[in-house]
Amino acid sequence: MTKTLGLIGAGMIGATVARLAVAAGLDVVLSNSRGPDTLADLVADLGEHARAGTPADAARDGDLVVAAIPLSGYRLLPAAALAGKTVIDTLNYYPQRDGHIPELDSNELTSSQLVQQHLADSLVVKAFNNITYISLGGRARPAGDPDRSALPIAGDDTAAKAQVAALLDTLGFDAVDIGSLADSWRSEPNAPVYVQPYFDGEAPKDLEPEDTFRWHLTNPGVPVPADQVRKLTDTAVRGAAGGYIPGLKPA
Questions:
Q1: How far apart are the first and last CA of the chain?
Q2: H or E element that contains 209
Q3: Which of 9, 11, 164, 175 has a CA-to-CA distance to 28 between 20 and 30 Å?
Q4: Mean of the pLDDT values across residues 29-42?
């Protein structure tokens, strides 16, 4: 049972997961690459169930650890400190931001398999990567709520996936097991289950980046139940790896 959640990365997804965790009664240890002092405002906002530390602190103290950093920094995840831990991999591949990674461009590996190679003594489970922080924060619902949404998870260890599914349930989401880390491309950028299903309609074409962001920020969203997640992931067809971030200059 997860009582303390460690977070390596405290950006949009990391901070949102932390908020959901605190709201659910969990303790959180937040960390980033810039040091605990830079997280003072976020920790103060989250309250007494949150504290800041180093990535090694989050790895050591978390019953379960969330990696929420850009994929380009995956080698900075503290492999020794994470040994024996279940690690939730939220990372997505954006060549425009991360630079080109040959093993991913060739579809030889998924990004989660790449992370698992680095964290050889950890149990990696893909989750939280197919939803924006806006939808993640706004679509959480208690078990049994007719508007509850589901998120896909993928991993090579059954017990680790069960641990992550239990966390999702605590945070307000159902989990849909889509297979192994080799299958995790089914929830990656450009896949049918990626981001768009959780929004009410599609953003108008040809908007400026600021207006597109505002559209997403104010969109009320829609529930995406488990059977819809299953259908979307089952019908996915693998194409070129990597997504695109509008308005971001290439790395």
A1: 40
A2: helix 209-218
A3: 175
A4: 97
* Residue that the structure tokens 């920020």 belong to: 217
Task: Look at residue 147 and tell me whether its pLDDT is greater than 80.
Answer: yes
* Confidence category of residue 205, pLDDT binned at 50, 70, 90: confident
Secondary structure (DSSP) of 48-89: TTEEE--HHHHHHH-SEEEE-S-GGGGGGS-TTTTTT-EEEE
Angle 113-164-41 (CA atoms, 0-180°, nearest 5)? 95
What does the radius of gyration of the chain's CA atoms come to, in whole angstroms?
17
CA distance 242 to 240: 7
> Which residue carries 């050591």 as its tokens?
60
pTM: 0.95
Measured between alpha carbons, how far is 132 from 118 in angstroms, rounded to an integer?
25
